[in-house]
């Protein structure tokens, strides 16, 4: 058991819009040293920090677009998103829910603020991650896992410190509900003021946290405010969080795939040739059909 040290605390960059519904700070790839390899298998992380969207009759969002070669994972903290894809998958996720979509061989989807939420307006806060797929699964069939909060395993911490919601992977023997194609741990740490949580992941797993709400002290030394990402070194296994106030922290740790990455927009494959194939397949209708 060796402490995993902090490599860097990364502040949120200037936000930009994805479509007209997602006002995101991009952390991966691009911020600090967070290229597509540094947090492998997490190859993209966009974060819509808490933001008020006024009422509208026309739901904001992102229109139909393709993906191939990876999984998109959306973790909702505030507001509601509706999703539809070309396999017939779809649903609405709201506060505390997770959507885990395996694009794999190819999917078309669209993501919009849910209708009633759009009409009423309100605070919106979400994370979208892209989790890369091992080469051997990149062309497997697409699938969709909608994971409502009540289906997410929860671990109560000692001393009434709070709880850990295990989305994927494992926390102290409790397994998350999402099925993954490589070792990935993803959880929300919901701590009360003064509460402490300890985490342990193999040192070769790339590991980071995003402070969603409140602020925490990491490893009893570094105070990290809301909307900041902590990138850990791969020099140890264990780290701790102590909540300075009621806090929510997204914890990510994954075994790197260590495979070549060829990325072009919504396609992430291993070779340039596979990217050319993906573009051809998309333009010749092989990703199916989805109404705008
Ligand atoms: Mn998408």
Task: Write down the overall geometry.
Answer: globular
From the N-terminal CA to the C-terminal CA, the straight-line distance is 52 Å
Structural class: mainly beta
Q: What is the alpha-carbon Rg in Å? A: 18 Å
CATH uppermost class: Mainly Beta
**Mind telling me which CATH architecture this is?**
Sandwich
CATH fold descriptor: Jelly Rolls
Low-confidence runs of at least 5 consecutive residues: none
Strand order of the largest sheet: 1-22-19-24-17-14-13
Helix coverage percent of residues?
under 10%
Task: Describe it.
- With 292 residues, the protein is mainly beta.
- The chain has one domain (6-254): Sandwich (Jelly Rolls), CATH 2.60.120.
- It is 6% helix and 50% strand.
- It has helices spanning 115-120, 272-283; strands at 6-10, 16-18, 22-28, 42-53, 61-67, 70-78, 81-85, 90-93, 98-102, 107-113, 122-132, 143-147, 153-156, 162-168, 170-171, 174-175, 184-191, 196-200, 206-213, 216-218, 222-224, 229-232, 238-243, 247-254, 262-264, 267-269.
- Strand 25 (262-264) and strand 26 (267-269) form a beta hairpin.
- It is globular.
- The mean pLDDT is 97.
- The site of manganese (II) ion has 5 residues, from strand 5 and strand 10.
- Manganese (II) ion is lined by residues 65, 67, 72, 109, 111.
Q: What's the short version?
A:
This protein has 292 residues and is mainly β.
List keywords for this structure.
single chain, Jelly Rolls, seven-stranded antiparallel sheet, 2 helices, 50% strand, binds manganese (II) ion
